[in-house]
Amino acid sequence: MNSWEVMEHAAELARRGEAFALATVVWRQGPSSSQQGSRAIITADGELHGWIGGACAEPAVIRAATHVIATGSAELLLLGNPDQFGGAVPEGVAVIPISCQSEGALEVYIEPVVPVPHMVVVGRSPMAQTLADLARALGWHAELIDGPDFTADGVGEQSLVVVATQGHDDERVLERAVAARPAYLGLVGSRKRGAAVLGYLADRGLPKAALDRVRVPAGLDLGSTTHPEIAVAILAELVQLRASGALAGGTAGPPSVQSQPGTAVDPVCGMTMTAGQRSLSLDHAGSTYYFCGAGCRHAFEKDPAAYTIADVPDVKGEARC
């Protein structure tokens, strides 16, 4: 995957509402397998797409990228021997020493890419129009769909759905919305009306757990309000839920990383790296050992007793291979 293909893949991930980090090589010192301008995408589960460097640089970038995704803050990494940078390293820049045989060095900028919330407002009332307009004013991707035209095809688990059909076939629309399992599903209406709609859907066999996720009435309770104020109350509730991390998806803030890759230390060279199905590993004496490359694995196979967990140095982020 070249740099332009990486960007195309990034656009596709953003369209699907998936958070990821974009890593770009902004400086290199040869010899190095990477080039200035090389790019890679790192997903929240630690999968890397593209090329950012070899066995020494890649694990460090993946670890930093998962942290960037979790915090929502960009980082600038200097990968190499600190002596290569002298005293010119700016404050706040993370230096990760590596001692690869190539003796190259890299400067990598890692930035979080978090999609904007996707809101679907179903209905044709002035309140529904106001709600969609307010969401767009926040930079959200908001769609306004009339009830008869609504299907679950364009709704995903990252979406925020507000059913504002207000008596016009609420049951059918809400049933379709429930099937999509969006991050947020709210019904505009009184508690009495909401109880009747949910009761009808329960009688039709919809699971209780799915119906319990429907917020009725949608929005913060502001008492007796006008239609524009109802729109404000609904949007305020969504902003509040996002800020608290209560939404499973549909967030434009720092996302919750549901699965981060594990790490392991190469018992031969001491390099800290990602431990996964694609990693080079070896089972010995009931334990699984991970290696940065075939050379370290071969050395371990020749004399396993020489490389025990107790002998592995505390590298504190240093990667040595």
Describe it.
The protein has eight helices and 15 strands. The protein is of the alpha/beta class. It folds into three domains: 17-113, no CATH class; 118-244, NAD(P)-binding Rossmann-like Domain (Rossmann fold); 262-311, no CATH class. The strands form four sheets. It has a six-stranded mixed beta sheet, with helices on both faces. A five-stranded parallel beta sheet has the order 8-7-9-10-11, with helices on both faces. Strands 12-13 form a two-stranded antiparallel ribbon. Helix 3 packs across helix 7. Mean pLDDT is 82; it is low at 249-261 and 310-321.
Main sheet overview: 6 strands, mixed
Mean pLDDT across every amino acid position: 82
The total of beta strands comes to 15
Work out the count of structural domains: 3
Query: Uncertain segments of ≥5 residues (pLDDT<50)?
Result: 249-261, 310-321
Oligomer: single chain
Q: Give the distance, in angstroms, between the N- and C-terminal Cα atoms.
A: 26 Å
Helix/strand/pairing category: alpha/beta
- The CATH topology of the largest domain corresponds to Rossmann fold
Report helical residue fraction: 25-40%
Rg over alpha carbons = 25 Å
CATH architecture of the largest domain: 3-Layer(aba) Sandwich
CATH-level-4 superfamily name of the largest domain: NAD(P)-binding Rossmann-like Domain
Highest-level CATH class of the largest domain: Alpha Beta
